[in-house]
């Protein structure tokens, strides 16, 4: 019998379940504990974090439950967020802290953060802010910008226990009863069941891990589902005996399952599909005592292969031997806390042996330490003292190693040992190395190097030790010698420079490795630049400044987001949760099969190989009886005979019973292709540059993108100075945390009900009706919340919901479709790459006289939202600068990659950035300060905007608050003082440079087209229910609507509940949710509904807000008169011009740059934001912070790359890197302008939008980076995004043949 303890409950399972099933799948589908989310299935996002206690170690640790095999959890204890507390009982302080501290927006990642925090509080680490921040390296968040999360949790370090303030001297239920004290005694208290009063129960986190039978099983555990056998032997002898019984090709060794479960697919050519464990026999060695120890004897350290990375880090850190300390530092940045807690060093090394290109930090470290390995062969022989480099590269050892047993490293005698290690990555943490270097040396008292070992990764095809370089370092005084660097370069070139990395260039990798070796010498000589990585102060600092209108409460107040506590406790349900908990007896799960070729004809689709793996049925183009299209010319599925337009285009949806079978079933479907004659199809193009070259232009009727003012051509001809050129901007993925998801079930009379993670409820209804050939009245679409959207679920969600509905209609069963993260990234496009040509004329003062722009935008295979993105890029191209002679036109191009679509601040993100770049170039040309050129050209109240193609004016500017934002930014952020400090810093530092940039933003907002409906129902007991057509995607729409209803009706928010968006109730023919305006449009619709109800309450109950008659009495009287207390509010805003009003923003960023490595750290960011009178201070500040950090990712860490076949290379969390907690500004200040209500016609309670404008303001970070690059003598031609490799190449461009 298999036993697992979850949240103190014992679960006994017969040993016949699928041994390859993940712990997360069991928790979610079998136990209904959907607080444990699955965001990536790679261990890269932290959404699935749980606390894990094994028989080997009584201390709970955080792990990724999406990677952990359920079969390896026998006799283990699991704690999920549901086990910490709930809103129905008592929340833990951790859950309450993140919810009430505004640390949850879409909320999909929130339970993972809760459990990571619990893991930290239970860890042996000193409870300091720095340690806490470092511990959270495995959790991502796309919404909040991290600042409120870390600030909320840091309060727990100070003993701020909101629920327990009394004494517990009479408590008998815990160990906190030794006198009078609060629940923080002992350091780990998380809640007090007695409400903080004497006699209450102070419960520790450790109390929640109920210790039942924690003894290690003494007998062999066998689990088999008939396809795969799993064994967990109790000792080493049993393990070796088992291994010898089976053919070695059938055996897979398991311990932590962090490599095979997470990233192996990127090296075995199956990505983005994760095909599961391919071994027929799994031998789990995670519980073998002989493999768990780390010992030191006679100067030799030996670590068993079952030792986790975290335990190895701890052991090495306790040594005073410099190479071991360096090893601890290097291993502490492998992956993340969750992976290090579960993964073993041997598993990491095995990946390096199997896949030479795998950037193994263990292989690098053990190579530098001259480690030797001991392993067992398949026939039970033990082989010892094998050098690690030999073990990983020699075919003999690859062939004969059955099980790694241990490594040994010598603590070499002498006092002169030094070691430095370097790891250069796409973001600060939770990223694999682009380049790594580990140097160990012995330096004599005279300063001569007597012994040296140099190990390097990322530059050659595998991790290498460089003996020639090591010899060149010997005997000389420890000062940098050009001969050493040259020898190092030649040795690397002789080993063969790595050509495999599509994300960085080989010239960067060689340069970075050389510079890391230079940094080692700088360290030896105690000179600047010898640090291993760019130092970062603890983040989470900053101010959030806003004013509150007492007359408008609860509007304007910092009200916590409705549902935040449900999100923190795991009680909040998402579409993905509905999919995981469908009844398996009456339902099916679906997964897309997509094209993996482009430019070829589909000859056939074979499902034969998928049936043995669980395939039940499928839908493809042959099932589309009522039309194939979903958006424009885009079809739901390609048909046999179609020419494939892109990799990642849906071909079919396979259906199966178990959600965890998704990828292996889909991967088993075989698509056959045939070549196509050149006369039938154009040569595929995968980049915008090639699309421009081959003129792959969508017809002009598809796009209307042109604005103008004055006569740009004539003015340019007369301009005394002129700049011409072009700037290229990259793409960006939405990376919403809840991937595309939908669940469809059939109702009576042919009705279908769909739950979809969408931003477009009515659009989903319309598409499904067309696909099924039924009226919209028979399609009910519901959406309570979505785990993020950012524009990616405006139309891209139609694929999932349409396919799920088609499958349900065909099979007569409920069908659930949830995209895998890697497949989601491959199938769904993102922000459009653009190339923007410019011709700008100006005078000697920097005054712009004329400018022409031509925008080239990449749409992908179909148009979808890209026409709108290009239109926005054009309409917003004038930025914040008033130019009398202005022209801008846009052209949209087709490429053979997945369709791009709207992405937060679509189009204007790119166009405003390009224009701002020209301001810097003008300032450089005329020798003026950038600030002076900016201010000289700023728009002012009364200035006239350009006209559209048809001659319609965009209007004139009213209530321009730019100058005030700009002035207050400079005053409150002390810009002049910071600039002087930076100049002083740069004068005294050679290897570090800093830059500062201030960026202005003008963002036009219009609610036109965002028609929305809100239904307000008042019940006889005077409680209220509100239903809105707007989609809650984390932006706080529902909370703002409730605040407005509470204000207008004069009731407490606690009396108001929220109903989901529902096409059978409150969502009829509505617009999509996007453009930053939907919250305001819905709020006005709610106010309209309230006004209708107030009129009835006045007439029949004599009710006025603030009057003598209570709301309850008025409700009773009105209901008693038989009058309806339900009303619909409708809002279909119109505007006489393109924009209803403008949001004004001024932002400053300070960045520090390592000149030798390209690493960058954002020291501070200050945002001065014109929000009018904000609707909700918490939510609006949170949206500003989150948008800024998402923009930071666009400009610094998120690189979208396709290979030569059109396949996405930056796929999954392994290669695509949104910012993490350690990438945010160390000091992050957001200030809302005070006393500047929105006076525009149609304003909603004088508020302004916040969703997208702050995204654009993040360009200040990019310009600050470039200022630092220029301070280092680098090039002005920095790429966007300015990733670590591009930064280093820009610094050295003048010295390299690029």
TrEMBL record:
List of catalytic residues: 1252
Annotated [2Fe-2S] cluster 2 binding sites: 106, 109, 141, 143
Molecular function in Gene Ontology: 2 iron, 2 sulfur cluster binding; FAD binding; iron ion binding; oxidoreductase activity
Residue positions binding Mo-molybdopterin: 759, 904, 1075
InterPro entries, sorted: 2Fe-2S-bd, 2Fe-2S-bd_dom_sf, 2Fe-2S_ferredoxin-like_sf, 2Fe2S_fd_BS, Ald_Oxase/Xan_DH_a/b, Ald_Oxase/Xan_DH_a/b_sf, Ald_Oxase/xanthine_DH-like, AldOxase/xan_DH_MoCoBD1
Cofactor note: Binds 1 Mo-molybdopterin (Mo-MPT) cofactor per subunit. Binds 2 [2Fe-2S] clusters.
A Pfam family annotated for this UniProt entry: MoCoBD_2
Sequence ranges assigned to domain FAD-binding PCMH-type in this UniProt record: 223-427
Matches recorded under PROSITE patterns: 2FE2S_FER_1 (PS00197), FAD_PCMH (PS51387)
Coiled coil: none
SMART domains, sorted: Ald_Xan_dh_C (SM01008), CO_deh_flav_C (SM01092)
Cofactor: Mo-molybdopterin; FAD; [2Fe-2S] cluster
TM region positions: none
SUPFAM superfamilies per UniProt: 2Fe-2S ferredoxin-like, CO dehydrogenase flavoprotein C-terminal domain-like, CO dehydrogenase ISP C-domain like, CO dehydrogenase molybdoprotein N-domain-like, FAD-binding/transporter-associated domain-like, Molybdenum cofactor-binding domain
Chain sites annotated for binding FAD: 423
Alphabetic keyword roster: 2Fe-2S, FAD, Flavoprotein, Iron, Iron-sulfur, Metal-binding, Molybdenum, Oxidoreductase
The family this protein is said to belong to: Belongs to the xanthine dehydrogenase family.
PANTHER family referenced in this protein's UniProt entry, alphabetically: ALDEHYDE OXIDASE 1-RELATED, XANTHINE DEHYDROGENASE
Protein's name in the database: FAD-binding PCMH-type domain-containing protein
């Amino acid at each position: 019998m298999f036993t697992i303890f979850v949240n103190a409950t014992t679960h006994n399972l017969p040993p016949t379940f699928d041994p390859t099933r993940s712990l997360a799948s069991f928790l979610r589908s079998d136990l209904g504990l959907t607080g444990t989310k699955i965001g990536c299935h790679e261990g890269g996002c932290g959404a699935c974090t749980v606390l894990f206690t094994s028989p080997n170690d009584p201390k709970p640790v955080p792990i990724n439950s999406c990677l952990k095999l359920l079969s390896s959890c026998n006799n283990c204890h699991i704690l999920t967020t549901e086990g910490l507390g709930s809103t129905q009982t008592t929340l833990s302080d951790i859950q309450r802290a993140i919810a009430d501290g505004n640390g949850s927006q879409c909320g999909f990642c929130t339970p993972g953060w809760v459990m990571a925090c619990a893991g930290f509080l239970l860890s042996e680490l000193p409870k300091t802010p720095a340690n806490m921040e470092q511990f959270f390296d495995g959790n991502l968040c796309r919404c909040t910008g991290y600042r409120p999360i870390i600030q909320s949790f840091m309060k727990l370090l100070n003993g701020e226990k909101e629920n327990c303030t009394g004494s517990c001297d009479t408590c008998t239920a815990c160990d906190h009863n030794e006198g009078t004290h609060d629940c923080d005694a002992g350091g780990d208290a998380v809640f007090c069941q007695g409400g903080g009063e004497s006699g209450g129960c102070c419960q520790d986190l450790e109390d929640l891990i109920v210790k039942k039978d924690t003894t290690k099983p003494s007998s062999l555990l066998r689990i088999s589902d008939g396809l795969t056998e799993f064994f967990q032997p109790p000792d080493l002898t049993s393990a070796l005996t088992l291994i010898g019984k089976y053919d070695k090709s059938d055996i897979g060794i398991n311990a932590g399952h962090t490599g095979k479960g997470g990233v192996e697919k990127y090296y075995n050519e199956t990505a983005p599909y994760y095909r599961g464990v391919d071994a027929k026999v799994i031998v789990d060695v995670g519980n073998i005592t002989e493999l768990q120890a780390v010992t030191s004897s006679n100067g030799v350290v030996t670590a068993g292969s079952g030792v986790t990375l975290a335990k190895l880090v701890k052991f090495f850190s306790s040594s005073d031997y410099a190479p071991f300390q360096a090893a601890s530092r290097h291993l502490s940045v492998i992956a993340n806390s969750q992976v290090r807690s579960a993964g073993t060093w041997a598993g990491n090394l095995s990946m390096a042996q199997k896949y030479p290109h795998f950037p193994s930090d263990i292989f690098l470290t053990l190579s530098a330490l001259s480690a030797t390995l001991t392993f067992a062969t398949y026939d039970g022989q033990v082989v010892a003292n094998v050098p690690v480099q030999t073990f990983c590269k020699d075919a003999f050892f690859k062939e004969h190693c059955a099980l790694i047993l241990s490594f040994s490293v010598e603590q070499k005698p002498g006092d002169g040992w030094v070691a430095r290690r370097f790891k250069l990555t796409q973001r600060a943490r939770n990223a694999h190395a682009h380049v790594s270097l580990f140097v160990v040396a012995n330096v004599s008292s005279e300063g001569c190097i007597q012994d040296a070992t140099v190990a390097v990764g990322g530059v050659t095809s595998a991790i290498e030790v460089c003996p020639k370089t090591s010899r060149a370092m010997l005997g000389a005084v420890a000062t940098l010698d050009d001969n050493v660097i040259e020898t190092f370069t030649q040795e690397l070139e002789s080993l063969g420079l790595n050509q495999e990395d599509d994300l960085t260039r080989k010239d960067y990798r060689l340069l970075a490795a050389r510079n890391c070796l230079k940094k080692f010498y700088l360290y030896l000589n105690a000179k600047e630049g010898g640090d291993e990585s760019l130092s970062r102060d603890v983040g989470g600092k900053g101010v959030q400044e806003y004013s509150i209108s007492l007359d408008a409460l609860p509007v304007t107040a910092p009200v916590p987001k409705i549902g935040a506590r449900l999100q923190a406790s795991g009680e909040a349900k998402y579409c993905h949760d509905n999919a995981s908990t469908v009844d398996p007896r009456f339902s099916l799960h679906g997964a897309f099969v997509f094209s993996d070729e482009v430019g070829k004809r589909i000859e056939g689709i074979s499902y034969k190989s998928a049936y043995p793996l669980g395939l039940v049925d499928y839908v493809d183009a042959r099932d589309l009886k009522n039309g194939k299209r979903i958006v424009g010319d885009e079809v739901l599925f390609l048909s046999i005979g179609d020419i494939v337009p892109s990799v990642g285009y849906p071909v079919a949806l396979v259906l199966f019973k178990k959600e965890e079978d998704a990828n292996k079933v889909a991967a088993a479907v075989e698509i056959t292709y045939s070549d196509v004659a050149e006369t039938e199809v154009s040569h595929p193009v995968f980049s915008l540059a090639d699309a421009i070259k081959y003129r792959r232009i969508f017809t002009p009727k598809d796009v209307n993108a042109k604005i103008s003012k004055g006569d740009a051509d004539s003015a340019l001809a007369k301009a005394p100075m002129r700049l011409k050129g072009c700037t290229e901007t990259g793409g960006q993925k939405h990376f919403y945390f809840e991937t595309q998801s939908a669940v469809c079930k059939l109702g009576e009379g042919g009705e279908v009900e769909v739950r979809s993670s969408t931003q477009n409820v009515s659009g989903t209804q319309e598409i499904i009706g067309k696909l099924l050939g039924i009226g919209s009245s028979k399609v009910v679409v519901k959406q309570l919340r979505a785990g993020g959207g950012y524009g990616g679920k405006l139309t891209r969600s139609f694929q999932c919901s349409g396919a799920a509905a088609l499958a349900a209609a065909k099979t007569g069963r409920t069908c659930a479709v949830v995209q895998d993260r890697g497949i989601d990234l491959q199938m769904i496009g993102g922000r459009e790459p653009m190339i923007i040509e410019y011709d700008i004329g100006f005078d000697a003062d920097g005054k712009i006289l004329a400018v022409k722009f031509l925008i080239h935008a990449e749409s992908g295979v179909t148009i979808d939202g890209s026409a709108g993105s290009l239109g926005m890029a054009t309409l917003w191209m004038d930025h914040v600068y008033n130019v009398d002679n202005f022209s801008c036109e846009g052209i949209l191009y087709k490429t053979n990659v997945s369709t791009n679509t709207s992405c937060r601040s679509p189009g204007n993100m790119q166009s405003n950035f390009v224009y701002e770049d020209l301001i810097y170039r003008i300032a450089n040309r005329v020798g003026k300060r950038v600030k002076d050129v900016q201010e000289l050209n700023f728009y002012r109240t009364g200035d006239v905007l350009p006209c559209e193609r048809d001659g319609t004016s965009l209007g004139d500017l009213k209530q321009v608050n730019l100058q005030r934002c700009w002035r207050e930014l400079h005053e409150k952020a002390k810009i002049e003082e910071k600039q002087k400090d930076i100049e002083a810093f740069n004068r005294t530092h050679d290897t570090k440079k800093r830059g500062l940039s201030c960026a202005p933003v003008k963002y036009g907002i219009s609610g036109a087209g965002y028609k929305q409906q809100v239904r307000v129902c008042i019940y006889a007991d005077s409680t209220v229910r509100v239903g809105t057509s707007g989609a809650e995607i984390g932006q706080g729409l529902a909370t703002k609507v409730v605040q407005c209803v509470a204000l207008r009706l004069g009731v407490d928010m606690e009396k108001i509940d929220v109903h989901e968006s529902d096409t059978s109730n409150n969502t009829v023919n509505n617009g999509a949710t996007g453009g930053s305006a939907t919250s305001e449009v819905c709020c006005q619709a709610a106010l309209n509904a309230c006004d209708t109800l107030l009129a009835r309450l006045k007439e029949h109950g004599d009710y006025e807000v603030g009057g003598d008659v209570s709301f309850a009495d008025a409700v009773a009287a009105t209901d008693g008169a038989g009058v309806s207390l339900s009303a619909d509010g409708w809002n279909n805003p119109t505007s006489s011009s393109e924009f209803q009003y403008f949001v004004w923003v001024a932002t400053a960023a300070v960045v520090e740059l390592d000149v030798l490595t390209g690493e960058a750290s954002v020291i501070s960011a200050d945002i001065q934001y014109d929000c009018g009178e904000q609707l909700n201070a918490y939510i609006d500040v949170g949206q500003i912070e989150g948008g800024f950090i998402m923009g930071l990712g666009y400009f610094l860490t998120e690189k979208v790359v396709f290979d030569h076949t059109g396949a996405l290379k930056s796929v999954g969390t392994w290669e695509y890197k949104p910012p993490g907690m350690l990438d945010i500004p160390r000091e992050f200040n957001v200030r809302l302008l005070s006393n500047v209500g929105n006076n525009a016609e149609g304003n909603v309670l004088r508020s302004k939008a916040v969703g997208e404008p702050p995204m654009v303001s993040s360009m200040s970070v990019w310009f600050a980076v470039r200022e630092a690059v220029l301070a280092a003598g680098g090039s002005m031609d920095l790429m966007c995004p300015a990733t670590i490799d591009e930064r280093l190449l820009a610094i050295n461009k003048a010295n390299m043949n690029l």
